[in-house]
Amino acid sequence: MREIGIDEAGKGPVIGSMFVAGVLNFEGLEALGVKDSKKLSAKRREYLAELIEDATEVHVLEITAGEIDEGRKRHTLNEIMVELFSAVIRSFQPNRAIVDAADVNPDRFAMNLRANYDRAGGKGELELISESKADNRYPVVSAASIVAKVHRDRSIRQLEADIGAEIGSGYPADPKTIQFLRRQLREEDDIPPYVRRSWKTVARNRVH
């Protein structure tokens, strides 16, 4: 039985990439004490992600801010998520996939995900479990949540190093992020490539 868990990190931020991670279940996973990545410290996430990636198969996809903006010209964000989750499933060819639904309607997400998987040439019988907050209930989805979050955090810290400024979390609710965004939009002739220009947050904070 090849069972995987899938989760994302960075769906909502106005700055930076989004990551989708898939993790193949393995013996000893529960003993690691994995849980929803938001309930763990950054240091603990890093530690657990290293253990997980050393112990089993892991597949991580990154979609940049620019790719998200381009994709949203033709698709909703949920449709983009379906494509990414489907790609991760195809990379594993599992018997069962448990996903943290990227839609307020988990059944609809499952239906769209299965249709995309079949259309893209997914092979074999696939049992698909789609639930909200699956990262709270299934250790293998918790593991995927941790891996995705660690990759997202690393990318933000690398971006900060590259541009020489603090960004914060990248989320619209983060005052540090909004302060940084306003400064960038005031100083730059164009919106920087790491900012999701299709987010309403950009229009609200742009100085004309």
Descriptive account of the structure:
The longest helix has 25 residues, at 139-163. The protein has 208 residues and is of the alpha/beta class. It has a five-stranded mixed sheet. A hairpin with an 8-residue loop joins strand 1 and strand 2. It has helices at residues 42-55, 65-71, 77-92, 106-119, 134-137, 139-163, 175-187, 200-205; strands at residues 3-9, 18-24, 58-63, 96-100, 127-131. The chain contains eight helices and five strands, in the order E-E-H-E-H-H-E-H-E-H-H-H-H. It starts with a strand and ends with a helix. Helix 1 crosses helix 6 (139-163).
From the structure above, extract its key features.
alpha/beta; globular; 5 strands; 208 residues
SS-derived structural category: alpha/beta
Largest sheet data: 5 strands, mixed
The radius of gyration computed from the alpha-carbon positions, rounded to a whole number of angstroms, is 18 Å
Shape: globular
Helix content: 40-55%
Runs in which pLDDT lies below 50 for 5 or more consecutive residues are none
How many helices? The count is 8
β-strand percent reads 5-15%
Total beta strands? 5
* End-to-end CA span: 57 Å
Order of the strands making up the biggest sheet: 3-2-1-4-5
Mean pLDDT: 94
Helix and strand succession? EEHEHHEHEHHHH
